[in-house]
Amino acid sequence: MIDSHCHLADEAFSADLPAVVARAREAGLERALVVLAAGDDKEARQAARVEALWPEVRFAIGVHPHAAHEFADDPARAARAVREQLATTPSARAVGEIGLDYHYDVSPREVQQRVFRAQVGLARELDLPVVIHTREADADTLAILREEGGGRVRGVLHCFTGTAALAHAGIELGLHISLAGIVTFPKAIALREAIAQVPLDRLLVETDSPFLAPVPHRGSRNEPAHLARIVGAIAALRGLAAAEVGAQTTANFRALFRP
């Protein structure tokens, strides 16, 4: 199994990182994609610790929509910051997480859009996949991917909680759909219905840890070792063996991120 999106460089793991990595490996994880905020020196130092403990990890680097306001004066500067950190991070394999978040509106929507556009353009230039965060902004997210990606940007809609229509649109754009612990929540019926018909070869699995721990760990700190709960939930939904889902999502990760 591969955790396609986690935040192991978050301070939530600083005290017991070796144990967290050990549990992930014991749970059967081959590797994880660790998401980093561009320009965050503290996260970069923690990322070095993660890689020393787990050399198979890979990284995604981007400016999250919540941080877009920091680049309001020059959105292109966000792409430059990502480019510079990618150049000094040999294990980086993606631009992200990037996108739009209209739920909290931490950053003005227009600024979010401009920063997102700049980073999609960078990913296209570098031929790297994008890790997309979209919340209550689906139409604008898809429009920017179409306009800036030109049909040539591959990537993933991370922590998918959207509709069947969004999943279909994402797949048409060449994106993968990544499912997190929410798929295990009893009330997530609409989500399970929405992803029921997503082709298995377009699915990824993630923990988004330390957030969104799956049942029965809900409410506690999440970690990559809990990925098997998500794989199991998808397997039950599809009527498949967990090993089959784990093997296919692992193959999907390798094809997309070329680790």
Throw out a few tags for this protein.
single chain; 259 residues; TIM Barrel; 8-stranded parallel β-sheet; 9 helices; globular
| Overall pLDDT level | 97
- State the order of secondary-structure elements, H for helix, E for strand: EHEHEHEHEHEHEHEHH
CA distance, first residue to last residue: 14 Å
Find the CATH topology: TIM Barrel
CATH architecture: Alpha-Beta Barrel
Number of helices: 9
| Tally of DSSP β-strands | 8
3D architecture notes:
There is one protein chain. The chain is α/β, with parallel strands linked by helices and about 260 residues long. The protein has one domain: Alpha-Beta Barrel (TIM Barrel). It contains nine helices and eight strands. Strands 1-2-3-4-5-6-7-8 form an eight-stranded parallel sheet. Strand 2 (about 30-35), helix 2 and strand 3 form a beta-alpha-beta unit. Helix 3 packs parallel to helix 4, helix 4 packs parallel to helix 5 and helix 8 packs across helix 9. It is globular and about 50 Å long. The two termini are about 15 Å apart. The model has no long low-confidence stretch (mean pLDDT about 95).
List the helices and strands and how they pair.
Layout: E1 2-6, H1 17-26, E2 31-37, H2 41-53, E3 58-62, H3 76-87, E4 92-101, H4 109-126, E5 130-135, H5 138-149, E6 155-157, H6 164-172, E7 175-179, H7 189-195, E8 203-205, H8 227-238, H9 242-257
Parallel strand pairs: 1-2, 2-3, 3-4, 4-5, 5-6, 6-7, 7-8
Helix pairs in contact: 3-4, 4-5, 8-9
